[in-house]
Design goal:
By secondary structure, the chain is of the alpha/beta class. Helix content is about 25%, strand content about 30%. The protein is built from 6 helices and 10 strands.
């Protein structure tokens, strides 16, 4: 996965959700999940805690954010709340017991996974800590969005992409920086999830509305995948 420096983690933490390109898919996530009252929610690849804080506003009893990157977790921990816990993933293991969370979410994380073996490992760990029948939602880059211009980022255009190819995301801001991501399709995600005990419910491609957006109004930046856990591998 991409390793964020402390400086880049700080820039990323300032993006927020409201009024950014990320708001579009997070709004869809909120619509799907509805009221999370009484639920324990895992935010896999929480980064600076942006999605974890959103999940808390949906009423979750506890949101547990986990991430591989020390710089991102350090930023997340600067916003302490008794309903939010942040933990570092070590040795690819989520520091939680089996079947201990009701819902799992992973936002803009799987695009940073560089090979299918690593994606299988991540999915297996989410499956391990998720209760049977639990929901797993992935927000991932829409494979058709490469080369389009969005309000807060863009992927540099690259022709004839195939699964596993490197792609470059330019994050905008006062100090723009680049992230080394990986090109994956909806079918790639589906094959990995299905083989690790998940059943697909739906896939949506949310668009924005309004004059404040760029290509968000015509090409969805993200795909939002909803799955449920039906068995342990």
């Amino acid at each position: 996965m991409y390793k964020y420096s402390p400086e880049n983690a700080n820039i990323y933490s300032q993006l927020g959700v409201i009024g950014t390109t990320y708001e579009i898919s997070f709004h869809e996530l909120s619509r799907i999940l509805g009221n999370l009252q009484g639920k324990i929610v895992l935010d896999y690849g929480t980064g600076t805690g942006r999605s974890a804080r959103l999940l808390k506003t949906l009423g979750a009893e506890k949101v547990i954010g986990v991430d591989h990157n020390e710089s991102m977790i350090a930023q997340a921990r600067t916003n302490h709340n008794e309903r939010l816990d942040f933990h570092l993933i070590t040795a690819n293991t989520i520091p939680l017991p089996d079947a201990s969370v009701d819902v799992a979410v992973s936002a803009h994380v799987f695009v940073e996974i560089q090979n299918l073996a690593e994606m299988h490992t991540a999915t297996q760990e989410v499956s391990r800590v998720l209760k049977p029948g639990g929901t797993f939602i992935i927000i991932a880059t829409n494979s058709a969005s490469i080369g389009y211009e969005y309000k807060n980022y863009r992927y540099i255009k690259k022709d004839e992409l195939k699964s596993g190819d490197p792609i470059t995301c330019v994050v905008k801001g006062e100090t723009p920086f680049e992230i080394d991501d990986t090109y994956w399709t909806e079918e790639d995600y589906h094959q990995v999830l299905e083989s690790n005990g998940f059943m697909k419910i739906r896939a949506t491609f949310p668009l924005a509305m309004g004059e404040e957006w760029l290509d968000e109004v015509k090409i969805a930046p993200d795909i939002v995948l909803e799955y449920i856990k039906i068995f342990n591998k």
